[in-house]
Write a structure and sequence with these properties.
The complex is a heterodimer. Chain A is an all-beta fold. Chain A has strands spanning about 5, 10-15, 20, 25, 30-40, 45-50, 60, 65-70, 75-80, 90-95, 105, 110-115. Classes of the chains: A mainly beta, B mainly beta.
Chain lengths: ~120, ~120
């Protein structure tokens, strides 16, 4: 069974502050992908990143960075110098690579509000 | 990148009627399509998985006679909500996958309101 936990339901920060969104996952598979998606009020999911379970390198993309630690089963997402446009719900997700049925399991989401 | 469209983007219907939602992969062949449901302020819950030309596989608790899924071609899957009731009001999102790729591409969603 797969499970993704996003313990932070809602976070509010003041613009320009840094914020980290936590994600902890559970899976019995040794090969899997982890994802982060952004869902603005319009509802459309915006893909942010995909990470293979064999690649534990941290990644930085502009103001976004991700910290993947298999030892703690965590895949945290940090936004540096937050902006109002970052306000959205962010979902962490997991999919296994074994077998032909690749089900994506989503976390419950973290609503981020960036206050100007 | 791969594009998935959904139609309509929103729909309002009367209780008891049926509503069809289309999901199309525009620039790739979607071997597998997934249908998700999202209630307000909640996460996405997988409803069913459909492979082109095969019957859909429904998740536990999802009524297959109420949510009819047809994946007739490699670019189109449809979800029909039959005899819709107000509790079916939700945001329905489809995603599509090409071959055995781990990547799923999501549609923009369809907001269904049943009066």
């Amino acid at each position: 069974a797969q499970k993704v936990t996003q313990a932070q339901t809602e976070i509010s920060v003041v613009e320009k502050e840094d914020v980290t969104l936590d994600c902890v996952y559970e899976t019995r598979d040794t090969t899997y992908y982890l994802f982060w998606y952004k869902q603005p009020p319009s509802g459309e999911l915006v893909f942010l990143i995909r990470r293979n379970s064999f690649d534990e390198q941290n990644e930085i993309s502009g103001r976004y960075s991700w910290n993947f630690q298999k030892s703690t089963s965590s895949f945290n997402f940090t936004i540096t110098a937050s902006q109002v446009v970052d306000s959205a719900v962010y979902f962490c997700a997991l999919t296994n690579l074994s077998g032909g049925y690749q089900k994506v399991t989503f976390g419950t989401g973290t609503k981020l509000q960036v206050i100007p | 990148g791969a594009v998935v469209s959904q139609h309509p983007s929103w729909v309002i219907c009367k209780s008891g009627t049926s509503v069809k939602i289309e999901c199309r992969s525009l620039d790739f062949q979607a071997t597998t399509m997934f249908w998700y449901r999202q209630f307000p302020k909640q996460s996405l819950m997988l409803m069913a998985t459909s492979n082109e030309g095969s019957k859909a596989t429904y998740e536990q608790g999802v009524e297959k006679d109420k949510f009819l899924i047809n994946h007739a071609s490699l670019t189109l899957s449809t979800l029909t909500v039959t005899s819709a009731h107000p509790e079916d009001s939700s945001f329905y999102i489809c995603s599509a996958r090409e071959g055995t790729s781990a990547e799923q591409f999501f549609g923009p969603g369809t907001r269904l309101t049943v009066l």
